[in-house]
């Protein structure tokens, strides 16, 4: 587990083995069974999580009862409700394991401890936050300017490792379309080939 976390950190900043070990020791290891929740709407998110194994979906249920998937998280990705975690307010999100999963969780208190005692960690989270903002901005622009078909094609190209692990319903919820509409898109693409 520490090796996967170390690889993730190294992609953003350089830490000594001692710093990596000290940071790793601030995390709590947790296993989550398939269809179990790491967070439910209305709870306060008390963690940022690093996915060691498995697959999660982070989603919201709108006023009409439709699921809106913000993102999926697989191995080597981070998960949280950043609004709830940062502002200590009730979450509007669900974080559900779609497979039996393993995560490393860090609390706000331990993250603040890392900021004070391992200064490079603050840079790590700043860099990751900037990358997250870029990804969210691109996703918003894509949702506003691209067709559902193009968004689906780009999803398949960008996340080929997810396609086999997700149902059509989950992919449709991520794309903001119905499962029927996604099936039509897939048929249309298959017909073109």
Automatic annotation (TrEMBL):
InterPro entries: cNMP-bd_dom (IPR000595), cNMP-bd_dom_sf (IPR018490), RmlC-like_jellyroll (IPR014710). It holds the Pfam family cNMP_binding. Residues 30-110 form the Cyclic nucleotide-binding domain. Transmembrane segments: none annotated. Gene3D superfamilies: Jelly Rolls. SUPFAM superfamilies: cAMP-binding domain-like. It comes from the Bacteria. This is Crp/Fnr family transcriptional regulator. It comes from Sphingobacterium alkalisoli.
